[in-house]
Design brief:
The chain is 28% helix and 17% strand. By secondary structure, the chain is α+β, with helices and mostly antiparallel strands.
Length: 737
């Protein structure tokens, strides 16, 4: 029998004893337990005839094994008695087993849940130096520790991991609930789209597919009383371009060609072509069709034209402020264009069609077209020739007198139709965009001023109509009169003298007029002023038409009770003043002024307008007596001598009044005026001339009377009005007022 821990004696591997001197064949310790006998020859290898011995920890002590002999691990279980050693037995692993055998040994030990060696534990080399300390390995048996608590039993082997499958029914139920919820959302949305909101989305789809285009209606024309066109609509083109499709290398060429044809600055066209993100840029409106055709012949990329209409004014500035103009959208903005816009504009048509994404029409799809209704023509009461004469006369006088502005109105006595309504300066309708805003105002109906002595006919009519005076009633007239706390003076110094009421009117005496007004009182004068239309709009309907200013007689101040009698303290327009003289010339019957003679119907036939409303203001006798007094004012001894027309009897009245400046808030300058009618014995026309703030002279007899004469002379010749009977007897004295 061999002893545990014997050394090998041959070239083979020997036993693993303390201080062994074996060479390369020395026995190595396995990491899992004490050393095992070597696999090759030597005394350490068991005899085939000897049964394998158990390697128990207490054998070494009983047999006198040395202290450094390898001992079994405490946690290594005892091999059963009588068990044969096998190469794959973890209890009988040979001590010198290395390589594949050692790996197999480790695998077997791992499967038997034998604890693995400590980290860092290494197999023993062939030989260890005694200076390195005792070899590492399992703890040795110590007799001194045998009385201590035995080591705990080894842990039971860990059961292998088992994959547990969940309950499939629960997963299926959860999935079905989730799918039901999601499908219900889709179903609700589908019901909303296809049921509740189907009409809304159908309309939106139609809007994307169906394109509606407005077909502009042709605007009606404005003509004078004889059918001469003052405003007309002609065919035109709109020129547009798509900058996003113009190549960069051709922009300069396109801009130069377009600017030349449209007569626009090249920089303006180049700026629009530079907007490469834009799909549409309007280059010009109201282009002549010939110019548009010539531009298309240049074969410029993406240049398009659209048929439209352009408003033109053949007469330029003739009756400009009266006619007015239209904006870029074709809507009337001033004058008759605005007043009759609904009639002139007509009704636009509409065309709808289906198109694709690229803007091309989809063939064989629906298309609807509603034809436009053209506007109707409006015929004015204006006579183009007389309008030209009135405009020429007032423009020349405003320039000659250095005045601020001027107005002329020519009115038919019987119908109160406006034959001419001229302002100076006048508005050029073909270039209205460049004119200042103040040029848009029709001064004949919008400018308010104090009439002055032209208002004395109302005082005379009130006094005669009330029976307070007659033309032959005499008054002792001085050149001044006390009124409340002020002294009012006559137009010129003179000695106190006895004058008839007729002479007072003819010489335009302020003092004599105040004396006559005191006989009828404030109430009587105020009522007559209202009957003649003061304080109310005349009724033409033109934009900016004013009613003037007529304070109630109960609010008149002490001096105002006197000044109103001769036209200071009240404010009127030129049209209101002309309307007063129309009533006198028409035998005391005031007719509402008219500016529109009629319009065409849907079939193009002319339909005359309704006559103006008639109101009797004074009796025929009163009107005749006043007309006779006015005729004397134009005689050689009156104040309106410069208004006389050879061969015709003319009746009229001069006016000179302080001009109230609204911007300054005080009186500044004068208003010179003259208004009259002819022939005096059979009146046909009334002419009013007003000059605002003349610089070289202030009297109406000197500034406005010549304008009246020129316009009236032209008008009666244009209408072929023959002269009438002999002239009335001249007045006895005259005055410069």
């Amino acid at each position: 029998m061999r002893e545990s821990g014997g050394r090998g004696q041959g070239p083979g591997r020997g036993g693993a004893g303390a201080g062994s001197q074996g060479g390369p064949g020395a026995v190595r310790r396995t990491p899992a337990g004490p050393g095992r006998p070597g696999r090759q020859g030597g005394a350490g290898r068991p005899s085939p005839d000897e049964p394998p011995r158990r390697n128990r920890p207490d054998d070494a002590g009983r047999r006198g094994a040395p202290d450094d002999a390898p001992r079994p691990r405490k946690d290594e279980p005892d091999r059963p008695e009588g068990r044969q050693a096998r190469p794959d037995d973890p209890f009988d692993l040979p001590r010198g087993l290395t390589g594949a055998g050692a790996q197999e040994s480790r695998r077997v030990r791992s499967e038997d849940t034998v604890p693995q060696p400590r980290a860092g534990a290494q197999r023993r080399g062939p030989r260890q130096d005694s200076r390195q300390g005792p070899p590492q390995g399992p703890p040795r048996s110590d007799p001194r520790r045998q009385g201590r608590r035995p080591p705990p039993p080894p842990r039971p082997p860990r059961p292998p991991l088992v994959l547990r499958l969940g309950n499939p029914r629960r997963r299926i139920n959860i999935g079905l609930i989730g799918m039901t919820f999601i499908l219900s959302i889709f179903a609700g949305r589908l019901i909303q789209l296809q049921g509740l909101d189907s009409k809304v989305y159908e309309a939106r789809a139609a809007q994307q597919r169906v394109v509606s285009e407005t077909i502009k209606a042709k605007r009606g024309s404005i003509t004078d009383v004889n059918g001469h066109e003052l405003a007309v609509t002609v065919e035109a083109r709109e020129i547009a371009i798509d900058p996003s499709k113009v190549p960069a290398d051709k922009r300069a060429h396109v801009a130069a060609v377009v600017a030349k044809e449209l007569n626009k600055p090249p920089a303006e066209i180049a700026a629009k072509l530079a907007k490469t993100t834009s799909r549409y840029e309007l280059l010009a409106r109201d282009v002549d069709p010939l110019v548009a055709d010539r531009l298309l012949e240049q074969e410029l990329p993406t240049v398009t034209t659209k048929k439209t209409y352009r408003r033109t004014y053949p007469a330029g500035d003739l009756a400009g402020t009266l006619i007015g103009f239209v904006g870029d959208d074709g809507t009337g903005l001033e004058g008759v264009e605005q007043m009759r816009n609904s009639v002139l504009a007509g009704r636009d048509g509409k065309q709808s069609m289906e198109q694709g994404r690229d803007g091309q029409r989809i063939p064989m799809t629906r298309s609807q077209r509603q034809a436009p209704i053209e506007g109707r023509d409006v015929r004015l009461t204006i006579d183009r020739d007389i309008q030209w004469a009135a405009q020429k006369a007032i423009t020349e006088q405003v320039a000659a007198s250095g005045a601020l502005s001027g107005t002329v109105i020519v009115m038919d006595v019987k119908t109160a139709q406006i034959v001419a309504m001229a302002n100076a300066p006048e508005l050029d309708l073909n270039n209205w965009q460049k004119a200042p805003d103040r040029s848009f105002v029709n001064r004949a109906v919008a400018e308010v001023f104090e009439p002055g002595s032209t208002n004395k006919v109302i005082t005379a009519a009130a006094a005669i109509e009330a029976g307070a005076v007659t033309p032959e009633t005499t008054f002792k007239v001085a050149d001044h009169i006390r009124c409340a706390d002020q002294t009012l003076k006559d137009s010129h110094p003179h000695k106190t003298e006895v004058m008839t009421f007729k002479q007072i009117v003819e010489t335009s005496s302020n003092v004599g007029t105040i004396q006559a007004a005191r006989r009828i009182g404030d109430q009587g004068l105020y009522t007559m002023l209202k009957n003649f239309g003061f304080g109310a709009r005349p009724g033409l309907g033109l934009p900016g038409e004013e009613a003037g200013l007529l304070p109630d007689h109960t609010t008149w101040s002490g001096t105002q009770r006197c000044t109103v009698a001769y036209g200071q303290g009240v404010s009127v327009t030129a049209l209101q003043t002309a309307s007063v003289y129309q009533a006198i010339a028409n035998g005391g019957v005031r007719v509402q002024p008219q500016i529109v003679a009629g319009m065409t119907d849907e079939n193009g036939r002319f339909v005359a307008g309704k006559p103006g409303r008639q109101t009797r203001v004074v009796s025929q006798n009163t009107a005749d007596e006043i007309a006779a007094m006015l005729e004397g004012a134009v005689s050689a001894e009156g104040t309106g001598t410069l208004a006389a027309i050879p061969g015709y009897r003319v009746a009229g009245k001069t006016g000179t009044a302080n001009r109230y400046d609204q911007q300054l808030g005080r009186y500044n300058g004068y208003t010179a005026s003259f208004v009259g009618f002819a022939p005096a014995d059979k009146p046909e026309l009334v002419v009013l001339a007003v000059v605002q703030k003349p610089a070289k002279d202030i009297y109406g007899g000197h500034i406005a009377a010549p304008v009246f004469k020129d316009v009236m002379t032209f008008a009666i010749k244009s209408r072929k009005i023959p002269p009438t009977g002999p002239s009335a007897s001249p007045a006895r004295i005259g005055a410069g007022h």
